[in-house]
Design a protein that fits this description.
Blueprint: E1 4-7, E2 10-13, E3 18-24, E4 32-39, E5 46-51, E6 58-60, E7 71-76, E8 81-86, E9 95-103, E10 116-117, E11 121-126
Parallel strand pairs: 2-11
Antiparallel strand pairs: 1-3, 3-8, 4-5, 4-9, 5-6, 7-8, 9-10, 9-11
C-alpha cells in the first residue's frame, strides 16, 4: 500500500512558477513509477508527466499546451518524493494536480494503469 500526499499548489500570475511535491509512504519507493496528472473543471483527468523508479525514463504529455517545454518532473528516492517544477505558467494550466503511483513494470501515461493516487493540490494561474 502506498499513500501519496501532494503539496506546493497555490495561486500565481501568468508567467510565474510553482514546484509541486508528492511524498510517498513505504520503504519500496524506488520500485514505483510516479506520475503527475491534472484535472480542470469540467474536463477529464489528463496526463502531464511520468518518471520511472530509477528516474532514468521520463515521459511528458504530447499535448496540453507545450508542457514539456515548461514543466520538469524529477524524483528523490532518498526522500520518497517526486516533484513537478512548473515554469512560465499559463491560465490554461489551472487545475487540480494529482500524484499517482504504480509498481514499476513499463512506464505509462494511462491513468487507469495507476493504482495509487494523492488527494490533489490546486493550481490557479491568473492572467
Amino acid at each position: 500500500q502506498v499513500q501519496l500526499v501532494e503539496s506546493g499548489g497555490g495561486s500565481v500570475q501568468a508567467g510565474g512558477s510553482l514546484r509541486l511535491s508528492c511524498v510517498a509512504s513505504g520503504r519500496t519507493f524506488r520500485n514505483y513509477d510516479l506520475a503527475w496528472f491534472r484535472q480542470a473543471p469540467g474536463k477529464e483527468r489528463e496526463f502531464v508527466a511520468a518518471i520511472s523508479g530509477s528516474g532514468g525514463i521520463i515521459y511528458y504529455t504530447d499535448y496540453a499546451g507545450s508542457v514539456k517545454a515548461r514543466f520538469t518532473i524529477s524524483r528523490d528516492n532518498a526522500k520518497n518524493t517526486v516533484y513537478l517544477q512548473m515554469n512560465s505558467l499559463k491560465p490554461e494550466d489551472t487545475a487540480v494536480y494529482y500524484c499517482a503511483a504504480r509498481w514499476g513494470t513499463a512506464l505509462t501515461a494511462k491513468k487507469d494503469d495507476y493504482n495509487y493516487w494523492g488527494q490533489g493540490t490546486q493550481v490557479t494561474v491568473s492572467s
